[in-house]
Structures are given as structure tokens and as C-alpha cells.
Write a structure and sequence with these properties.
- By secondary structure, the chain is of the alpha+beta class.
- It has 4 domains: 300 residues, Inosine-uridine Nucleoside N-ribohydrolase, Chain A (Alpha-Beta Complex); 141 residues, Sandwich (Jelly Rolls); 83 residues, Immunoglobulin-like; 180 residues, Sandwich (Jelly Rolls), CATH 2.60.120.
- The protein contains 14 helices and 48 strands.
- The strands form 11 sheets. An 8-stranded mixed beta sheet has the order 3-2-1-4-5-7-13-10, with helices on both faces. A 7-stranded antiparallel beta sheet has the order 35-38-47-40-41-42-43, with no helix packed on it.
- Strand 1, helix 2 and strand 2 form a beta-alpha-beta unit.
- Helix 2 runs parallel beside helix 13, helix 2 packs across helix 14 and helix 5 packs across helix 6.
- The longest helix is centred in the N-terminal third of the chain and has 18 residues.
- The N terminus is likely disordered.
């Protein structure tokens, strides 16, 4: 009953966070100024998105945002996020000290790829002056200052003198206008933390001279609260949040990051309870080196620090729900749909130097794909059947080599894997200057395509550094969606097969582009949204049903009629998406070759956010058994991609298993889980080159791995593992993408069991 009560509490909490119940929010918007070091870590981006989303919900009013570093890209990055959420007029200030955390990070890429006002931090006003200007205009004791970086701006504010904005000193102005300082800094009850220690002098000074209530969110709070993945999977990829995380080494594409700053922002606006508790007697003693110690003298110094109260996952969900369930905009963006190619979100092919083709889509202008004759082609295919309406495209030859730039080409689009092509654009006699800057070309025939091909007709050596296919995305019309157009009115697939559906709203620039997908018979076919306008239909059993895409307000809908044919798999073989990856997988058999698609983040566990997720072609087994196959090919859209043979207790949860897999780094690995819900262990067995025969043999509770080049002559035992397993298990082929935004395709044959 305790577990049931906890889960009910979490459900209620998430509902409150979504609907804005008064127990989690103030009766009127909270006036806030946010002070961030946006750049050294990416959780600042999550916090800025949370605050902008809360403003769109009417819970917060962002008076200004400050960058507390010398990096010239910090203020523009903040401006991008504000603009994306429809708040382009929020004042943005920046630190004017030289040399303090000045190096660019992900903030530069975000600033260069999204619309905003500030070309550089040089264009932003001095944070101290902006603080004084904004605070002077506010009612007394009305502003919450949210600090999510080093405290240098705050020290400068406290040390500021009377000026044209206010006759008060900085200390007097803060004491008169600020209601609360909500500070992400320190570790409690004592320790050290980066925001304080990076500028210990400032942290020490602020603690001594800030005369308003202070609320501290320590390192220990946000360290175990992970956010990010659900935002990738439930918002469009043109969200600048996605670009920031993808370019931050500590996170990555479709990955999580600890949530020090978002937890502080949420607590500052919505209040501490019920997510956290608060220790509110004593005071924070911060040394000159930034280390902190909470002095417990039993007295009320109007200082407090957060303490853990609710389940970490519940807090993660609450933070992400604020972002996921809030409409950004209005905005107007040109988004490069190939930007995430290097993150596994596209396949690249070429007529020559195919192994180099991905260099034309790797976000690195120093690398290039080359065609020695200038008459070949290069293709880009979006994963999992996604289609985009491309409004323009760009070509960038290597800098300094204008004579190696292509000068003539044709652009084509296809929706049937290249069987039929539609010509989209033709260019002849193009030239480039010595800087070889990228050129953009408009496309007049606006139509959804899954596959794009550039056919070159230059007849000399060409090198292409970067190619971009750009989608124009606007969300500015407040009218309702009048109609929806599906790209396929009829879908035919087999049991365990899948097909993609793409939909276009009319008008295309509505603010609310959200869709609701439903199936008339989930026992026949199911439907899963995998993007803003794409869904995957998966066949479950032979029969007919309809799939409906409906606008979020229910005003209009579009219907596709689905026919599911019987499975082509042998008797007793089935396919499951273990633990429901974001993008469903599939399995088919053609001329003796199994094509298996599997999604998921990894086979294993990592904190509470990542569990086994993969596609599993499986067959029941009892007692001693052996399974073998020839692994022919494997795509690796993520670093944790794996494919191979598995024995598993069942197809759900964190079941016990033993698996022999090949990973994304061509390592052959034996891995296992001996206890339900337990951790995984693994043993590396060397490198593997495909095609390769794999065999996994069970004798009692001992599993032994073998390989072979020809399927006749097997190696001696590579490794064995003995545990305690059920007599009846499922054995088969497992496929994990290592990237929950797409799937890995594995082909195998010679699949035998006995």
C-alpha cells in the first residue's frame, strides 16, 4: 500500500505541475531576474526554458536575464531561448569583466543557428547597470533573484554606487526591492560546489552583504535529478534546447543531465513544497575559497536550504512536464534538418567515396566529401520514415578552395527509396569566392520528402564540406488548424512490421501544432508519435483498422486505413519492443534474411531513467538450448548500439538475461543480469567484424559463447557465465539503437535453434 500511495502522489504532483494548481504556484506571476553562467554546463538551458515556460503559463514574469561570464556567446544564447518562447524583449545583460569563463561552448552554436537580437555579448548592456535599472522600477520586496552560476554579477551589484537609476547604494537597492535570493550554490550541510568555488571571493562577499531572505539549492539536490531525454522525445528537434544538449560533452543527443539549475528555478517560482523540504534555521558560512558550512545555531537568519522530500523521478518528471506541456512561440525559424546527422538521425549514401559521405553532414567545415570526377551523387535519408518539407538547401565547399567547389547540379526528392524522383532545383555555373562561404538556394516546389539527392554535373574534382537541407518553421498564427493532410491514406503492412505516417497541418504556421494519434483497434495495429508530424504504425495481428491524426483541440482530423497481413515469421517466433522504446522496431523475413529494427537507449540500467530497451525477435525455450545466427550487418545510430543473441526470462521489465552482442565499437561482449531489477555485468571478448556467426549455448544455468567465420567450424569457448535462471526462457536476436530517437537496423540469416 505504501508503494501504491507513493505512485498516486507522483501522479497528482505531475498533474498539478501540468495544470498549475494553486498549491504549487503563487496566485500571481512571480517577478524574477535570472543570473546564469550559461555555457560551462547545459542545465542552465533547462532552467531558462523552465522559466520561459512558466512565464507562458502565467506563473512567472522574467524582468531580465543576466550572463555572469565574459563569454561573448552567453547573452546571445539566453536571447535565443527567450525569443523561441515568444519573449524577444526580455532585457539581457552580461558581465563586463574580461577573462572570466570566456571560452565559447554550446552557447555559440545555439546563438549562430537561431534568431535573436544580440550578435555578441558586446551588444548587451552591463549586467550591473541593467540590474539597477530594472530593480529601481519594481515595487518594494517584490523581486526573486534566481542565481544559477558564480556570484560575480551579484557582488558587482552590491558594490555599485548611486546612479541615474536610483539614489541608493547596491546593498540598499537589493534590500529594498528583492524579496528572495534563490541561489544554486554550495553543498549542505557542508562541502564545496563549483558555482561558489569558481569565484569564492564573490560568494563570500554576497553572503556577508546580501540582506534579504536567501534560499539555497545545494549540489546534492540537483545531482540526482536527471532531465533531458523526455524533452528530446516530446518537443521538436528545432527546439534550441536540443542543440545545446547535443553539443555539450557532459550530456549529448537525447541524453540526460543533472538538474542543479532547473530545480532551483522551479523552487524559486512555484515554492519549495511539495517537491522538497527546507531546513530553515542557522546560516550559510562561505569561505573565501568558496567552500561552505551551514552554522546550526538554532536561530532564524532568514536563510534556508532545500532538502530531499520526494522521489527523484517525480521531480524529473515535474521539471520536464513544465517544458513539454508548454507551447513556445511565436517564432519563425529556418532549421537545418540534417544538423543531427552525426547523432544518428539520418543515413548518407554516395555514388563515390561512400565511406566519406557522412563528412558532408558532420557539422565540421574542415572535413569534406570528394568526388574526383564531379559527376556523382550524394543522398540524405531521414530515419524511420520521417519526411520534411524543405524550403531551401545550402552547399559549403572547403574554405580557401573555390576551384574545388561544385558549379552545376540538380536536386531531387523521393518518397519510395529512390524508385521515383521529383526534381526540386537545378543550378548551373555557380562560383564561390576565396572564403568559400556557404550558399543557400530556395526550393519552389514545397513537398514532403524522405530522401534527397544532389546529382552533380561539374566534370572536375569537387569537394563538399557541408550540405544543409532547411525547413522553414513558423508558429505565429493563433487561428485553429483548419485541416490535416496525411501522406498516406492507405497503409499495408505485416504483423511485426511498421510504416510511417506524416501529416501536414493547414495553416502550417499555427502556434499549436500538437497532434493526437489514435487507433481504432490496438490489437490489430498501434500508433506511436515519434516527432512533431510523424508517427509509426506497427502491425500486431492480421486484420483491418484505422489510424487517426487529430489536432490537439479536436477541431479536425485525418484518417489512414490500415491492413495488417499475417506474419511471415516461422511458427512460434514473435517480436517485442522491450520496455517500449520511443521509436518502435519491427521484424520481417525475406529470402531467408531477417531484417530487425530495434530502438532504445541501451541494454542495461543507468540510474532510474534508463532501463533495458530494444527490439527482440524471440522464441520460447525450455531447459538446455542453443541459438546461432550469422550477423550480416548492423547500423549504429548511437554509441550504445548493440545486436546479438539473448536468453531472457521474459520480454518486459528488468528481467534476468544472458546475451552475446556486438556493440557500436565492434566489440564482442558477453553481458548478463543475474537478479531481476539488478545491475548488468559484462565481459569484453575482443573485436568483431561482420559478417560473423554467433552462437550462445545453454547447459543448465551455464551459458557459453562461440563465434565462427563459416558456421561450420566454431571457436573454442570464448567465455561462459553461470547464474540462476528460469527453466523456461525466451531466446532470440536482440537489437538496441543506443539512441532512443531512432532505430538500428540489423540483418541476419542462418538463424537456428535447438
Amino acid at each position: 500500500m505504501k508503494s501504491f500511495g507513493r505512485h498516486v502522489g507522483i501522479m497528482i504532483l505531475c498533474l498539478f505541475c501540468l495544470l498549475g494548481k494553486s498549491s504549487l504556484s503563487y496566485s500571481k506571476p512571480v517577478n524574477v531576474i535570472v543570473d546564469t553562467d550559461i555555457g560551462p554546463d547545459c542545465d542552465d538551458v533547462t532552467a531558462i526554458c523552465v522559466l520561459n515556460a512558466l512565464q507562458n503559463q502565467g506563473r512567472a514574469n522574467i524582468l531580465a536575464a543576466m550572463c555572469c561570464t565574459s563569454c561573448p556567446w552567453g547573452a546571445p544564447c539566453i536571447d535565443v531561448l527567450d525569443t523561441y518562447y515568444g519573449h524577444p524583449n526580455i532585457p539581457v545583460g552580461t558581465l563586463k569583466d574580461a577573462g572570466f569563463l570566456a571560452d565559447p561552448t554550446y552557447n555559440k552554436g545555439v546563438a549562430l543557428n537561431f534568431p535573436h537580437r544580440l550578435k555578441s555579448g558586446l551588444d548587451a548592456p552591463d549586467a550591473t547597470l541593467l540590474y539597477r535599472e530594472v530593480l529601481s522600477k519594481q515595487p518594494d520586496h517584490s523581486v526573486v533573484v534566481i542565481s544559477i552560476g558564480p556570484l560575480r554579477n551579484l557582488r558587482h551589484l552590491l558594490q555599485s554606487s548611486p546612479d541615474r537609476y536610483s539614489p541608493l547604494s547596491g546593498e540598499e537597492l537589493v534590500a529594498k526591492k528583492v524579496r528572495l535570493l534563490a541561489c544554486m550554490g554550495g553543498r549542505y550541510p557542508e562541502g564545496g560546489e563549483w558555482n561558489f568555488q569558481e569565484d569564492g571571493i564573490s560568494a563570500h562577499y554576497v553572503m556577508a552583504h546580501w540582506h534579504t531572505p536567501m534560499q539555497f539549492d545545494g549540489y546534492e539536490i540537483g545531482d540526482v535529478i536527471y532531465t533531458g531525454m523526455r524533452i528530446f522525445e516530446n518537443t521538436p528537434l528545432y527546439n534550441p534546447f536540443c542543440m545545446a544538449f547535443a553539443n555539450y560533452p557532459g550530456a549529448g543527443f537525447d541524453k540526460d543531465r543533472s538538474s542543479w539549475d532547473p530545480s532551483n528555478a522551479l523552487a524559486a517560482v512555484l515554492g519549495v513544497a511539495p517537491l522538497w523540504g527546507r531546513f530553515d534555521t542557522g546560516y550559510n558560512d562561505v569561505a573565501l575559497d568558496g567552500s561552505d558550512h551551514w552554522v546550526r545555531d538554532g536561530m532564524d537568519h532568514h536563510q534556508s536550504y532545500l532538502v530531499k522530500r520526494m522521489d527523484d523521478k517525480a521531480v524529473s518528471d515535474a521539471i520536464e512536464n513544465v517544458i513539454i506541456h508548454t507551447l513556445p512561440g511565436p517564432y519563425d525559424i529556418d532549421f537545418n534538418t540534417t544538423y543531427y546527422s552525426k547523432d544518428g538521425m539520418g543515413d548518407v549514401f554516395a555514388s563515390v567515396n561512400d565511406n566519406q559521405a557522412a563528412l558532408a553532414f558532420d557539422r565540421n567545415p574542415s572535413t569534406a566529401w570528394s568526388d574526383p570526377y564531379g559527376s556523382g551523387w550524394i543522398e540524405y535519408q531521414y530515419p524511420d520514415g520521417r519526411c520534411y518539407v524543405i524550403s531551401s538547401y545550402s552547399i559549403s565547399p572547403p574554405k580557401g578552395y573555390p576551384n574545388e567547389a561544385p558549379n552545376s547540379w540538380s536536386l531531387y526528392g523521393s518518397n519510395d527509396n529512390g524508385k521515383h524522383w521529383t526534381i526540386l532545383d537545378i543550378q548551373k555555373n555557380q562560383d564561390y569566392n576565396i572564403e568559400s562561404e556557404p550558399k543557400r538556394y530556395p526550393i519552389r516546389k514545397l513537398q514532403m520528402f524522405n530522401l534527397l539527392r544532389l546529382q552533380f554535373n561539374s566534370h572536375h574534382l569537387i569537394r563538399v564540406a557541408e550540405i544543409g537541407f532547411w525547413e522553414h518553421v513558423a508558429a505565429k498564427s493563433r487561428e485553429r488548424v483548419r485541416s490535416l493532410l496525411l501522406d498516406r491514406r492507405f497503409v499495408s503492412l505485416s504483423e511485426y512490421g511498421r510504416e510511417a505516417l506524416n501529416v501536414t497541418p493547414n495553416p502550417s504556421d499555427v502556434l499549436d501544432k500538437r497532434l493526437i494519434w489514435t487507433t481504432s483497434n490496438p490489437k490489430v495495429a498501434q500508433v506511436s508519435s515519434i516527432g512533431e508530424h510523424t508517427a509509426i504504425v506497427t502491425g500486431k495481428r492480421a486484420g483491418r483498422c484505422t489510424i487517426t491524426a487529430m489536432s490537439f483541440d479536436g477541431a479536425c482530423k485525418a484518417v489512414s486505413h490500415v491492413k495488417v497481413e499475417p506474419s511471415d515469421l516461422p511458427n512460434q517466433w514473435g517480436f517485442n519492443d522491450v520496455n517500449s522504446p520511443h521509436v518502435p522496431g519491427s521484424c520481417s523475413l525475406t529470402n531467408g534474411v531477417y531484417a530487425i529494427r530495434g530502438g532504445g537507449t541501451e541494454i542495461g540500467t543507468w540510474q532510474y531513467r534508463v532501463v533495458d530497451q530494444f527490439g527482440f525477435l524471440h522464441h520460447p525455450s525450455t531447459g538446455d538450448a542453443t541459438i546461432s545466427c550469422r550477423l550480416l550487418s548492423q547500423t549504429v545510430p548511437g554509441n550504445e548500439a548493440e545486436a546479438g543473441l539473448m536468453f531472457r526470462d521474459n520480454t518486459g521489465g528488468l528481467a534476468r538475461f544472458v546475451a552475446l552482442v556486438v556493440d557500436a565499437r565492434h566489440q564482442l561482449i558477453l553481458k548478463w543480469r543475474d537478479q531481476p531489477d539488478g545491475d548488468c555485468n559484462s565481459l569484453k571478448l575482443g573485436t568483431a567484424s561482420l559478417p560473423l556467426f554467433l552462437k550462445l549455448e545453454r547447459t543448465g544455468d551455464t551459458f557459453t559463447a562461440y563465434t565462427s567465420e563459416d558456421g561450420l567450424h566454431w571457436s573454442s569457448s570464448l567465455a561462459s557465465h553461470t547464474g540462476s535462471y528460469l527453466d523456461r526462457m525466451e531466446m532470440g536476436v536482440c537489437v538496441c539503437a543506443g539512441n532512443n530517437m531512432t532505430t538500428s537496423l540489423v540483418k541476419c540469416d542462418k538463424l537456428t535453434i535447438h
